[in-house]
Structures are given as structure tokens and as C-alpha cells.
Design a protein that fits this description.
The protein is of the alpha/beta class. It has 7 helices and 10 strands. The strands form 3 sheets. The protein has a 6-stranded mixed β-sheet, sandwiched between helices. It has a two-stranded antiparallel ribbon with strand order 1-4. The longest helix has 18 residues.
């Protein structure tokens, strides 16, 4: 499944590698990769693979799940479609409480003690998804874990998830996508080592001047 989803993401440009002309993140970090999993929603065949894959991850890893909650905004559609496939309720968690009406942060019905799984599209440092987990826990939910489409596998993200005592299972990850990208000719074989160096330490830009063919 990891390789299949990797090929899907690469085929529609949802994951795009540019090691010789890095992107700049909002934090200022230079990155050889750009990820936009929203594009999966516009590609029906890929969307089907993703949603069926997420449903499989939930069934295999969190068989007791009673509801899915998406992250706002990228995880909402994926949570809705996956919950539909599983036949269970869904909701989503806003990045902040509304400033009007009932001032909800959590949208959709959530019962205290309910066993829920968070649906996220992308995990890098883990900060935003952990905020969602915390919000659900504060409202009495039992968060079984997270399912996501793609994870960088960065040490900071792994450490944060461990500290929050929450498990994440992804359809694919940075290492697999990088290797498949080389196999499929999206990047050079020599770029893979540079990409992994970035993943291991994003603040170290030595990978930018790495070996090129």
C-alpha cells in the first residue's frame, strides 16, 4: 500500500520534489519537497485509493473506533469520505473556537467517552494534529490514534507524538515516496540520499549542495 499511494501522490503532483530549486517554508526552512494532498480530492482514482486505504488503516489499527474527526481544513473531506465507507459518524475540529454562535471548536456530535480517530492529511512536526487530539481529549473523547495520508517521519514530529501519547499510522511516508520517485524517474537516484538528509535534519541545509549527477 505504501508504494501504491506513493505512486498515486507523485502521479498527480500531490508530492513534488525539487531538490535543486528548494521551496521555502513559512518557517524559513528550505525544503526539497512540496506536499499538497488536497489534490487527491480532484483525482477520483487516487481519491478512491486514499479513502479506501484510510478506511483499512482504521479497521486494522483502531477496530473499536466509533467516530472519525478531521483536522481543519485539510482532513475534513478525508474524514467524511472515510467515515462514510466505514458507516460511522464524523466531525471535525476547528483551528480555533468560532467567535459567534455557540463558539464551537468541535463540529459534529461528540459524546463523552466516545472512541475516536483523528484524520489528518499530512504530518511534519506534529504540532497541529496534537492540538486537535488535545481538544478532543478536553471534551472527554478517548482518542485511539491518528490516521494520515503522508508523514515526513521527522524526529521532532515523532517525539511530539510520543510525548502526547498518541499513535499515528500513515498510508505512506517520505522515505518510501523518495525511493519510488527515483524508481519512476521523477528525481535522480543520487537525490534520494540528499532528501533523506533533509528529513533527518531540516535545519541543516548541507543537502542543498549535495552530490549531483
Amino acid at each position: 500500500m505504501q508504494k501504491k499511494i506513493a505512486r498515486d501522490l507523485l502521479s498527480i503532483g500531490a508530492v513534488f520534489f525539487r531538490p535543486d530549486e528548494p521551496f521555502t517554508w513559512a518557517s524559513g526552512i528550505k525544503s526539497p519537497v512540496y506536499c499538497d494532498n488536497r489534490l487527491t480530492l480532484s483525482a477520483p482514482a487516487v481519491r478512491q485509493d486514499v479513502e479506501e486505504g484510510l478506511a483499512t488503516l482504521v479497521k486494522e489499527n483502531y477496530p473499536d473506533a466509533e467516530a472519525l474527526f478531521g483536522t481543519s481544513t485539510a482532513g475534513i473531506a478525508h474524514a467524511a469520505i472515510t467515515a462514510h465507507l466505514l458507516g460511522i459518524p464524523m466531525g471535525y475540529v476547528r483551528s480555533g473556537a468560532k467567535d459567534h454562535g455557540r463558539q464551537n471548536r468541535i463540529e459534529g456530535k461528540l459524546n463523552r467517552g466516545e472512541k475516536v480517530v483523528v484524520v489528518e492529511d499530512l504530518i511534519s512536526t506534529g504540532g497541529s494534529v496534537i492540538e486537535v487530539v488535545d481538544a478532543l481529549r478536553e471534551e472527554g473523547a478517548e482518542v485511539l490514534g491518528i490516521v494520515s495520508i503522508f508523514t515526513y517521519g521527522m524526529r521532532r514530529g515523532l517525539d511530539r507524538l510520543a510525548e502526547a501519547k498518541v499513535k499515528n499510522v500513515s498510508l505512506t511516508n517520505f522515505d518510501v515516496v523518495a525511493k519510488v520517485a527515483a524508481e519512476e524517474g521523477f528525481i535522480r537516484e543520487s537525490d534520494v540520499e540528499r532528501l533523506i538528509a533533509f528529513r533527518n535534519n531540516p535545519s541543516d541545509e548541507s543537502w542543498i549542495g549535495g552530490k549531483k549527477e
